[in-house]
Amino acid sequence: ARVGILISGRGSNMAALIEASHASDCPYEVALVVSNVPDAAGLAYAAANGIPQFAASHKGMKRAEFDALVDGALRDAGVEYVALAGYMRLLSPAFVDRWAGRMVNIHPSLLPAYKGLDTHQRVLDAGETRHGATVHLVTAELDDGPILAQAEVPVLEGDDAEALARRVLIEEHKLYPQALAELIRR
Length: 186
Ligand code: GRF
Fold this sequence. Notes:
Layout lengths: L1 E6 L4 H10 L7 E7 L6 H7 L4 E3 L7 H14 L4 E4 L8 H6 L4 E5 L11 H7 L4 E8 L9 E8 L6 H25 L1
Parallel strand pairs: 1-2, 1-4, 2-3, 4-5
Antiparallel strand pairs: 5-6, 6-7
């Protein structure tokens, strides 16, 4: 299956998805990387791996207008599944509808707990002992939608947000390719 990945920044989950796609038994290939931030760090990795990209700033555009542009780029690339990987934009209802059941997101918490931003600090502030990451189908609500897979990590004595984020991210990079492959195979 042809996958399009949407990023806004570092793109380490995008890199993990691309890396996993090179395995002979992987059911997907990455056909396009899209960024709403033209100088997102992840774009260099995509370019170095020969993956086509569509990068355009959303600034000054209406949400639905920008999303239609992204949708056009995905269609042109023959994309069948969309993976959000640190894409820091809410999506318009039309875009969500169009990709319903075929669009996934990774979120750094054990959903439904800790939707939204700053999950690691919030988990620490709440004194949680466990944390993790979730891959879910994207619906109109932020960080909502059916859960496909989760990975758990312990919160350790002396953790700060950075240390905890690092521990979670290691799991994200394993979880995301697995969950996407599973969705595509089913
Ligand atoms: C990850 O923690 C992901 O779960 C969240 O945003 C972060 C993106 O990191 N949605 P990266 O751009 O994939 O490195």
